[in-house]
Amino acid sequence: MACITSNIVTGVSESMENHYVRVLHAEGVPFVICTDDSGVFNTSLSEEYQKFLKIAPITTPELKNLCLASVTHSFATEDEKSALHDTISKWWIKKGGEL
């Protein structure tokens, strides 16, 4: 789990450039991009993904897989996971896989 903004604010990581998510990505360790509390840390999930894209080289297919993997790693029921997976996949198809 990588909460980039809150990790920097709380001192877990000293900067975006030195955030541990870069190592996780480079080493192929499974992780998800998330946010602890958007009200406290003044961020959104979309902003967290944007920050990640600035610090880690990632292709569009890898980004799509990262989004889908977040569903796989969630505590949702299998029915909820299936519905979320379908929603994300349809969005990517609609967008043509473009960012």
Task: Kindly summarize this structure in a few lines.
With 99 residues, the chain is mainly alpha-helical. Helix content is 60%, strand content 0%. It starts with a helix and ends with a helix.
Structure description:
The protein is mostly helical. The chain has helices at residues 4-9, 21-27, 38-41, 45-55, 60-72, 78-95. It folds into 2 domains: 1-56, no CATH class; 59-99. It is built from 6 helices and no strands. The longest helix has 18 residues, at 78-95. It is globular, with a radius of gyration of 14 Å. The two termini are 22 Å apart. The model has no long low-confidence stretch (mean pLDDT 90).
Q: Top keywords for this entry?
A:
99 residues, mainly alpha, 6 helices, globular
Strand content: under 5%
Question: Helix count?
Answer: 6
Which series of helices and strands comes N to C?
HHHHHH
Q: How many β-strand runs?
A: 0
Counting helices, strands and paired strands, the structural category is mainly alpha
Q: What portion of residues is helical?
A: 55-70%
Largest sheet: none
* Mean of residue pLDDT values: 90
Spatial shape: globular
How many structural domains?
A: 2
